[in-house]
C-alpha cells in the first residue's frame, strides 16, 4: 500500500509494526528496550513515521545485547513498577536473554517481552521473510513454548486482528500480582500484515484487593497476645508504599524486623532500632509469633520449622507459582495488598500488654545496640588491616553516599552480607539485589539510573560476577543514553563462593592435600577497569587502604559530572 492511510498509523491503518507500537503506547510503556533483530523492521518504520509526524510513541533504546535490554527493563521496572516493552530477536535472542527474563520473574518486575518467528518460510504469499528463518532461526513449537518456564505467561499473537489486544492482555497480566514478565511470540508475517487501525484500549492499573476486617481482627488479636513476636520480610519494599507501611506497623506494635539473606531489596531502615539483622535463628526457638511479610522462602532448609511459634503469612500472593518448592508453615494467611494490610494492623495496635511491649522493646534495643557496636568494631578493625578489606569498601561507600539519596544495586556473592550490613541503607528504593543468574548487574543499574536520573546509582559487583556481564555492550548503553553510574568491583581474584563449596564438601580431599583448586582462579584476568577506557569513562584501580576513599570520591564526582566511573578495588578476601 502506498496511500496516506498506510503512511499515518493513527489515521486508520498501517501494518503490524504500527499495531504493535500503538499497543505499547496505549499500554503506557515509556520505553521499548530492543536488542535488534531483522523482524523489527516494521516497528522501526512505524517509529520513524511517528517521529516524522510528531505522533506519540514509547522512546526506543537500541541496545546491543539481550541481557542489557532485559536487565535495563528490570532496573527501570524496579522503581517505576509498570510494564515496559522488550523486543528480542527470534528464538536465539529469547534464549540469550532468558536468564535476565527469569531474573525479572524472580524480582517481580512487570514487562512485555516479544520476539518472533516465521510461519511461511518463504512459501506463502506476501513479502519474503528471508531464508534465515528456514535455515537457522526457527524452533520447534515456537518461541512461546520455550518462554513458558521462565515467564509468568507466554503466548502467540497469531493474527493481526488480535495483536493489539494481545499486547494489552500481556501487559495487564504482567502488572497483576505476582508481577513478572509476560511473553508474546509475534510472527514476522503478522508484523507485515495490513492493519485496519483498531487500537488497543489503554491498560488499566491493577485494582487493589484488601483483607476484610473479619480477617484482620483475629491477626491483630494474635499479635496482641504474643509476648515475643518477630517480623520476617524479603520483598515488602518492592511494593508501592510497602517500606513506609512496614515501619508504621513495626513501630505501632514494637516488633523487631528481620531481613534474611534472601531479601531482594531494602524493606526496613537498617539504622532503625527495630531492625534485627539478617538471621532468623535467634527466634526459631524463642518466638511465639512469626509474621512473614512478603517473605517467599523464610526457612532454610525448608523443613527447619520454628519450635513453638504460630506463623501468620501477610502477602498478596503467598504461594508463588514460579517457585518450585516453597514451605511457609502458615497457620493463618492474610491476603490482599500488603501495604494496606500493614496499615490496617497498625491501626489496631490498641489495648497492648505494656509490660510485654516494654520487655521486647528493651531487649531489641540491646540487640540493636550490640549489632551497631559490632559493625563499628568490624569497621575499626578493617581500618587497621594492610590492604583493602571489603568491610572498609562498604563502609566508605556508606559515608560518601550519606545525604546524596543514592541507590545501590548489588551483584556481589561472597561479599553480599558485608555490603548489606555496612551500607546501612535507610530509605525506600535505595537498595536492590540482582536476581537470577550472574551477569545482569550493570544493565540493571543502568535501568535504575534511567528511572532515577537525578540520583547517584552505584553497582557493587564481584570480579567473578563482573566477568559474566556483557561489559562492552553495557558500557555502550551507558555512553549512548547518558546513564552515568559508579561501578565498584570487589576484586579478590577468585571465584570465592565456588572455592568455599569445594572446601566444605571435601575438607580433606585431594585438592586440600595438593593445593590444586580448580574452577576458582581469576588472577589471569586483565585489569578490569581497563575495559571502560575506550569509552572515555573514569577508571581507577585501588590496592591500598589510604587510596580507597579519595578514589571513590573522584569517581562519584565523575558520575555527578556525567561520566560512568569504574573503581576496581583489590580486596584482601
- DSSP strand tally: 19
Give the end-to-end Cα distance, rounded to a whole number of Å.
65 Å
Biggest sheet: strand arrangement: 3-2-4-5-7-6
Task: Classify the oligomer.
Answer: single chain
Going by helix content, strand content and strand pairing, the class is alpha/beta
User: What is the beta-strand fraction?
Assistant: 5-15%
- Name the helicity range: 40-55%
The parts where pLDDT drops under 50 for at least 5 residues are 1-11
Task: Work out the radius of gyration.
Answer: 25 Å
Q: Report the biggest beta sheet as strand number plus sense, adding barrel if it closes.
A: 6 strands, parallel
Total helices: the number is 21
Shape: globular
Mean pLDDT: 94
Notes on the protein architecture:
It is a single chain. The protein is built from 21 helices and 19 strands. The longest helix is centred in the middle third of the chain and has 31 residues, at 354-384. Helix 2 (16-26) crosses helix 3 (41-53) and helix 13 packs across helix 14 (390-401). The termini are far apart. Helix 5 (90-107) links the parallel strand 4 and strand 5 (111-115). It has a 6-stranded parallel beta sheet with strand order 3-2-4-5-7-6, with helices on both faces. The radius of gyration is 25 Å and the shape is globular. Helix content is 41%, strand content 14%. Residues 1-11 have low confidence and may be disordered. It is α/β, with parallel strands linked by helices and 573 residues long.
Amino acid at each position: 500500500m502506498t496511500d496516506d492511510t498506510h503512511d499515518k498509523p493513527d489515521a486508520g491503518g498501517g501494518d503490524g509494526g504500527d499495531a504493535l507500537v500503538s499497543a505499547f503506547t496505549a499500554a503506557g510503556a515509556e520505553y521499548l528496550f530492543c536488542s535488534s533483530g531483522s523482524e523489527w523492521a516494521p516497528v522501526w518504520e512505524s517509529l520513524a513515521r511517528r517521529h516524522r509526524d510528531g505522533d506519540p510513541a514509547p522512546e526506543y533504546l537500541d541496545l546491543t545485547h539481550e541481557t542489557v535490554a532485559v536487565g535495563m527493563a528490570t532496573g527501570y521496572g524496579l522503581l517505576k513498577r509498570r510494564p515496559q516493552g522488550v523486543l528480542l530477536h527470534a528464538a536465539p535472542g529469547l534464549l540469550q536473554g532468558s536468564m535476565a527474563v527469569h531474573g525479572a520473574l524472580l524480582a517481580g518486575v512487570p514487562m512485555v517481552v516479544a520476539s518472533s518467528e516465521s510461519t511461511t518460510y518463504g512459501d506463502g504469499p506476501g513479502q519474503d521473510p528471508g531464508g534465515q528463518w528456514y535455515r537457522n532461526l526457527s524452533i520447534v513449537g515456537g518461541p512461546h513454548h520455550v518462554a513458558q518456564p521462565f515467564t509468568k505467561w507466554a503466548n502467540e499473537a497469531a493474527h493481526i486482528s488480535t495483536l493489539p489486544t494481545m499486547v494489552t492482555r500481556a501487559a495487564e497480566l504482567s502488572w497483576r500480582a505476582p508481577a513478572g514478565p509476560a511473553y508474546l511470540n509475534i510472527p514476522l508475517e503478522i508484523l507485515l500484515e495490513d492493519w485496519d487501525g483498531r487500537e488497543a484500549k489503554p491498560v488499566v492499573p491493577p485494582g487493589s484487593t484488601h483483607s476484610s476486617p473479619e480477617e484482620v481482627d483475629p491477626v491483630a488479636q494474635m499479635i496482641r497476645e504474643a509476648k515475643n513476636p518477630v517480623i520476617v520480610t524479603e520483598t515488602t519494599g518492592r511494593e508501592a508504599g510497602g517500606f513506609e507501611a512496614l515501619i508504621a506497623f513495626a513501630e505501632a506494635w514494637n516488633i523487631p524486623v528481620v531481613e534474611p539473606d534472601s531479601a531482594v531489596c531494602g524493606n526496613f531502615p537498617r539504622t532503625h532500632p527495630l531492625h534485627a539483622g539478617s538471621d532468623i535463628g535467634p527466634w526459631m526457638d524463642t518466638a511465639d509469633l512469626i509474621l512473614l511479610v512478603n517473605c517467599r522462602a523464610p526457612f532454610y532448609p525448608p523443613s527447619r520449622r520454628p519450635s513453638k511459634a504460630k506463623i501468620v503469612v501477610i502477602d498478596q500472593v503467598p504461594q508463588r507459582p514460579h517457585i518450585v518448592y516453597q514451605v511457609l508453615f502458615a497457620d493463618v494467611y492474610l491476603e490482599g495488598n500488603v501495604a494496606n494490610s500493614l496499615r490496617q494492623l497498625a491501626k489496631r495496635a490498641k489495648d497492648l500488654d505494656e509490660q510485654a511491649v516494654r520487655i521486647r522493646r528493651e531487649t531489641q534495643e540491646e540487640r540493636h545496640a550490640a549489632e551497631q557496636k559490632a559493625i563499628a568494631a568490624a569497621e575499626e578493625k578493617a581500618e587497621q588491616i594492610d590492604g583493602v578489606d571489603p568491610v572498609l569498601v562498604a563502609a566508605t561507600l556508606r559515608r560518601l553516599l550519606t545525604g546524596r539519596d543514592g541507590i545501590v544495586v548489588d551483584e556481589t556473592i561472597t561479599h553480599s552480607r558485608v555490603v548489606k550490613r555496612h551500607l546501612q541503607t535507610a530509605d525506600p528504593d535505595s537498595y536492590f539485589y540482582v536476581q537470577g543468574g550472574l551477569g545482569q548487574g550493570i544493565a540493571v543499574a543502568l535501568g535504575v539510573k534511567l528511572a532515577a536520573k537525578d540520583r547517584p546509582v552505584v553497582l557493587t559487583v564481584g570480579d567473578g560476577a563482573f566477568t559474566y556481564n556483557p561489559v562492552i555492550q553495557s558500557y555502550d548503553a551507558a555512553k549512548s543514553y547518558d546513564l552515568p553510574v559508579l561501578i565498584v568491583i570487589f576484586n579478590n581474584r577468585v571465584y570465592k563462593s565456588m572455592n568455599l563449596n569445594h572446601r566444605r564438601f571435601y575438607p580433606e580431599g585431594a585438592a586440600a592435600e595438593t593445593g590444586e583448586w580448580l574452577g576458582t582462579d581469576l588472577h589471569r584476568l586483565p585489569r578490569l577497569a581497563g575495559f571502560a577506557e575506550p569509552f572515555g569513562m573514569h577508571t581507577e584501580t585501588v590496592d591500598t587502604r589510604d587510596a580507597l576513599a579519595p578514589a571513590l570520591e573522584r569517581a562519584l564526582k565523575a558520575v555527578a559530572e556525567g561520566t560512568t566511573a569504574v573503581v576496581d578495588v583489590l580486596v584482601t578476601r
